[in-house]
Amino acid sequence: MAQGTGIEWTEATWNPVTGCTKVSEGCKHCYAERMALRLQAMGQPNYANGFALTLQRHMLERPLEWRRPQRIFVNSMSDLFHPDVPVSYIAEVFDVMRRADWHVFQVLTKRAWRLAAMASQLCWPDNVWMGVSVENERNAGRIDYLRSVPAAVRFLSLEPLLGPLPRLDLRGIHWVIVGGESGPQARPMNRAWVADIREACVEQETAFFFKQWGGPRKAQAGRVLDGVTWSEMPRIAASAKVLASP
Predict the structure, then answer these.
(1) Of all helices (H) and strands (E), which one includes residue 132?
(2) Tell me, what's the pLDDT at 4?
(3) How many alpha carbons fall within 13 Å on the CB side of residue 97?
(4) Confidence band of 67 (pLDDT split at 50, 70, 90)
(5) Residue 120 falls within a domain, yes or no?
(6) Is 32 a domain residue?
(7) What are the angstrom distances between the C-alpha of 45 and each of 36, 156, 191, 235?
(8) Of 10, 58, 71, 136, which one's alpha carbon is 20 to 30 angstroms from that of 102?
């Protein structure tokens, strides 16, 4: 059975790698780190190393056992493009995704520079969606790296959104997810930042998914924006791999 999840934009998670290291401001209150340490304390064997980066080879072919088609978030507890993950292992993960073609795999990274450098060495079947996390304007350059990747669907996870992203250029981007930080030390998200991104998506015809307001009690804060629950999914077209002209 697939590992279920409460993440609103996916249906299951798969972690052939666990553990990570912090790379930018969005990592400060990492939910995966908190969860990994909790699972370590509970004696869960995959987290015997806590949040130290660990290849979970016994998990590598798990999606091939899941017969019901579903959207699967790859490495919710790590970053597949972390520099300590060997190129050969990343290629193995991509090969499993290619073989499990009845699923859709959603891969997300903050190491966009490594993603772009490796893209030509990987297979890119249409069931692999590739995204980058961007928390503020300082890290918006990750989007340009993503644009160079030949994925059928390219998406942004703007979570935790820690600042405005004015003049957001969505050329070649098919889907945008926005969310505030959650947890006891959650940093606030300004409504104007979210509304500006939503308008950019509407104007540039990019699917918009508002995940959460976040905060210490994210369930109470909900995910309604101006009276609407935005749950758009990317529109997959035959021309999806072709970048828009500058």
Answers:
(1) strand 128-133
(2) 76
(3) 28
(4) very high
(5) yes
(6) no
(7) 11, 32, 41, 39
(8) 58
Alpha carbons 16 and 244: distance in angstroms, whole number: 33
**22-36 per-position pLDDT tens digit:** 999 999 999 999 999
Q: What pLDDT is stored for residue 2 in this prediction?
A: 58
Q: 120 falls in which pLDDT band (50, 70, 90)?
A: very high
Indicate the number of domains in the chain: 1
Residue 244 lies in a domain: no
Calpha distance 170→160 (Å, rounded): 19
pLDDT at 239: 38
pTM of the model as a whole: 0.93
Residue 219: inside a domain = yes
What range defines the domain where residue 85 resides? Answer: 8-17+56-229
Tokens 């795999």 sit on residue:
105
| One-letter identity of residue 116 | A
Amino acid sitting at position 71 = R
The CA R_g of the chain, rounded to the nearest whole Å, is 17
Provide the CATH number for the domain around residue 76: 3.80.30
